[in-house]
Batch of 4 targets.
Target 1
Amino acid sequence: MSLVDIYRSLGVTLDRSVAHLVVDGNEILKANEVRGISMEKKETKEGIDLRLVIKEGIKLKDPIHLCFGVSKERAIQKIHAEIIAEKDSHAYILAHCIFPKAKEVHHVMDGSLLIEKGAELSYEEIHWHGEKGGADVFPRLRTRNLGDFRSTFSLLKGRVGRLEIDYLVEAGEKSITEIITKVYGKENDEIRIREGVSLNGAYARSVIKSRIAVRDRAFSDVVNITEGNAPYVRGHVDCTEIVQGEAIAKATPIVKVNHEKAKVTHEAAIGSVDRKQLETLMAKGLEEKEAVDIIIKGMLR
């Protein structure tokens, strides 16, 4: 099955009515623009360069589909992306990153985002790395948010392999930032996440929410950072990690306030599944392993 067929099986629309870009390694397989966006793309030696602009005042009803995949067992893929949501625009970007056969696949995503005043941008990134654990994935985003920015990253199917997320948002006046990350690590998967928001403009608000499960011998290390640097800003960090087997999980919330009228809060919970939930499910006839799996899937939903 080709990558295009895989994306279609996931419900991705790739006809001319919807903006999309499909990449296999460094080859652009399909691309389509719609009214109100500009998409400049170029194949490079090891990936692609992309500049995507949602134009001022444009409100897209359909998602923009970005499909970055590698069909080979061994490859290097480097994506350099610049995304701009101009003033008062509204858009939803749905990115799928798929490496179904990965034995030695090295994927680097180096992105910069600008959300201008009055703009709303939702960016959802869904990963599937196959079952061999051979993917090394390094998503890096630098975002300047003057509007409403919501980011969701999920890696729930297949093995993680090695994952290192590095996100940083500079949040301006009255902006809203939400970062949600959901990852399920198994066997000897390695997960490292560093996500930060600097609340630099008055009345800016943010939430960083991490939901991580690790089992077998997997490892996770989550660092969530929020800085309150302006009056009346509000930030919150919320990290939950479930550990099973010989897995190891770490969480480091870093909250910093540099203004007397700013407020930042945090909460973190690491460890086994909730005992009461487990007992309730087992009382209904489930084996412990089945009950744990249901609880984990519920957390990651």
Target 2
Amino acid sequence: MDVYSRHGGLVTDEIKLSEHLNVKSAGNIEGFVDLEDHTPAHQNNVLGDHGMVMPFQPFTGNWTQILGVFASKYESVTLAKISVETIILAEKASLFVDCITCDGASWNRTMWRLFGIQVGIL
């Protein structure tokens, strides 16, 4: 794939979920906050109430690559750390992340402030 085709944006999106445990046939229990290494200590063994997906969408082409899927309880600091790590890993895989797209939810606006982005009326 040529360099031009590897430029795109990271999209972050979340959905509110009801807290729920699910026991799989193999005995695994799903439903807890699972942010891998970014799970805050106070959220261990806590039920997640949001699902988050982070796909990469190229500016050209008709494909999308899911880079991460998480069960979470939202905290903006954790979201910012996950976003930065996702960008680093995507770029190590030869993708070029030129932007992050997200909605205006309060935790996303706080993440923008953590990144030094100011929103205001001109």
Target 3
Amino acid sequence: MSSPVVEIQIWSDLICPWCWIGKRRLERALRNSSLFADIKVRHRAFRLMPELIPLPVIDVLQQRYGGSAEQIVAIQQRIEKIAAEESLIYRLVGTQGADTLQAHRLLYLAHRQGLQEVLLERFYSAYFSEGTPIFDTDTLAPLALDVGLERTAVAALFAGQDFIAEIEDDQRRLQRYGANGVPFFLMDGRIAVNGAQPIEAFSDALAQLNADAASQSAFFLR
């Protein structure tokens, strides 16, 4: 019997440091697993700071959660070390936060052209590793062109309103699943991993998916 196909939906925001970390942990779990012959991944949008203009992340976090600048920097440095364990280079101190709507729209466009995964990685590395703002069209367009999106398609996207409704629906769907933050991973619409959990949590979820698929196959063979 062939291995089952699994569909994984990932809700994330491009400025959430835990989202790239969680993505890497899922990828490690998938590499370590031979349970599935085919894995389809779809990235869904979540906006942590809708309609916010670019501001220093430290200022945004202080306004939302309190704490001193020194405490926030210490947390950022701790996250940088955790990211390094996943072979990710983070430079969080001094970053800005803002609405990522335009970047998510580009990811939707990239999905149509089979480039969503590579563009997502480009956005993550630009923001977390290179310190590049990913909020306005002037900085986003070159990143999109880097991975193969067509200049005319990018310009047309920014000139219109495409994918805004889909992005808003992504956010509502996540809330219907009972989650209010990211990253959030949904496997075959049934098994969820909430947050950048250790790799064991992803491995356990994949094993449960495989067990469920095996049980269903056994039922139909009776």
Target 4
Amino acid sequence: MSTFMANKGNIERKWYILDAANKPLGKTAATAATLLRGKHKPEYTPHADCGDFVVVINAEKAVLTGNKATQKYYRTHSGWVGGLKETQYRILMQEKPELAMKVAIRGMMPRNIISKDSLSRLKIYRGAEHKHAAQKPEAWTAE
């Protein structure tokens, strides 16, 4: 019997819902990254994009432990002198909680082309409502 190798033709993608309400941001992001890469599947192949679709709901209710809500900063730099921009976590969660979740998930993915394609299957919503009911997503419970 030969070893199974996943490729585009034999990958089945499922839809999963992750509820981030009252759960640590990092644990939710780690679970989402695992589902996006497909590492939960027995047919996982590192060089093939075999991950699933992930819908994260209640992103605004994700929590951080300790004092990170006041001490954590998101930094970007334009490349120009004096181009550093800092945003505090609690301010970012008030304005764009989806972005905080996306940055956390992207940081847990490898830096390659497959991850870029995998992140296109990530859907993040501020509240409990989402527009993917037609895909019949399953709630992911094994955390």
